[in-house]
Amino acid sequence: MGSLTATAVKAAKAAGRYGDGDGLYLIVGKTGSRSWMVRVQKDGRRRDIGLGSAKKVSLALARERAAKARSEIEAGIDPVASRRKSAGIPTFREAAALVYAEQRKAWKNQKHNNQWISSLEAYAFPAIGDRAVNQIDGPAVRDVLAAIWLTKHETATRVRQRINTILDWSVAKGYRDAPLAMSVINKSLPKLPKGHKKHFAAMPYADVPAFMGQLQEKNSIGALALRAIILTAARSGEIRLATWDEIDFEAAIWTIPAERMKAGREHIVPLSKAALEIFQAAKGHRIAGSDFVFQGTKKGKPLSDMTLTKILRSSDLPFTVHGFRSSFRDWVGEETSFAGDVAEMALAHTIANKTEAAYRRGSMMSKRVVLMYNWADYCAQKPSNVVNLVA
Asked: Which residues are CB-contacts of 297 (< 8 A; sequence separation ≥ 6)?
């Protein structure tokens, strides 16, 4: 018989590990949680295998499960995978797919929709994707985040939130006994250096004309899309997912439906002559059967965000595609007499102040038309010292 008794198991209250022998332990957490674990070793590799909550698993049953786990390990069978298959507990990868399918219908931001799974595929799945959700612990998640915490901080914070959402869902579904102690994980991550900025890196507006001149020499669909983003001050996803029925060439407007806008409201963009010419040029890249103005390499798929980013990275430029919205906003504030309200409407920004929002009911279309034509004229300038921004 082992060292523990049923009475001793019930009496164990202090946090710690209580051994029964042959690698079987009762684990009492700081919060009072109690669970069984067996430690096994083969070929120099040690594994700790959970056997269930002490509330549901008796000492006798824990001993049976521990003996079975040891036998399976000796026979070359993975007891965790075997138990997960019989219990129907999903892997982290499988749980992520289920959470994504449930929640994506409520997301209005298509870019967020696309990045939700792709960020996990890139940074979480390689390390914890094939683990059962009830076997994912704090140290494993901490290591996933620490690898990109300083170099890709914005991405790391999103990955953290998504991992936490999936594991919370697993608790609600009964696949895990408890959520992660995220506060402990957060405290263990490296401190950000002083002066760290979370803003999107923006090209100085003074350099935009030279950049546009270089882009104009290219006839690729990616270069056209990037020029369209700059001239319309639109978000990347709004341009990449634009369809031909949204463009009114006669009225010179682009109507973005509410479901594709971050604020959830329809947005009308006045198109300057230069912007219209870009949309006209995009017709030359049109593929039969596709409604996207800026078609990607795969039929029926829009241009990827990475295609646009690559244009900047290929020239070692430290800017982001989204940052051109800031370039536009800085130009309006420093080089024009247009009111800030007009620029904010052009950017489709939500007004936090409800009182101010109530007074700003119009779209300021006439002023925005003039603003976008002025911006297009500025972007078309040819500075005397043209910087070779694009290879």
From this structure: none
For residue 363, the model assigns a pLDDT of 57
Which DSSP symbol is given to 104? G
The pLDDT of residue 105 is 74
Rounded CA-CA distance 323/24 in Å is 56
CA distance 174 to 167: 11
User: Of the candidates 261, 243, 332, which has an alpha carbon nearest to the alpha carbon of residue 111?
Assistant: 261
- DSSP per residue over 328-358, as a string? HHHHHHHH----HHHHHHHTTPPPS-HHHHH
The whole-angstrom separation of Cα 264 and Cα 232 is: 19
Q: Distance (Å, rounded) from C-alpha 304 to C-alpha 298?
A: 10
Strand order across the beta sheet in which 267-270 lies: 247-248, 253-256, 267-270
DSSP state of 186: H
What is the DSSP secondary structure assignment for residue 302, as one 8-state letter? B
3-state secondary structure of 309: helix
Beta-bridged to residue 268, according to DSSP, are 255
Phi/psi for 186 (5° steps) reads -60, -40
The candidate with the shortest Cα–Cα distance to 104, out of 95, 115, 113, is: 113
Across 41-45, 116-120, 234-238, 306-310, least confident range: 41-45
Alpha-carbon distance of 293 to 208, in angstroms, equals 23
Whether 58 and 7 have beta carbons less than 8 Å apart is answered as: no
Average pLDDT across the chain, whole number: 83
pLDDT interval class at 318 (50, 70, 90):
confident
**3 state SS for 207-276:** HHHHHHHHHHCCCCHHHHHHHHHHHHCCCHHHHHCCEHHHEECCCCEEEECHHHCCCCCCEEEECCHHHH
d(CA 301, CA 243): 12
Of 283, 282, 268, nearest to 232 (Cα)? 268
Please tell me which of 145-149, 286-290, 349-353 the model is most confident about, judged by mean pLDDT.
145-149
pTM above 0.70, yes or no: no
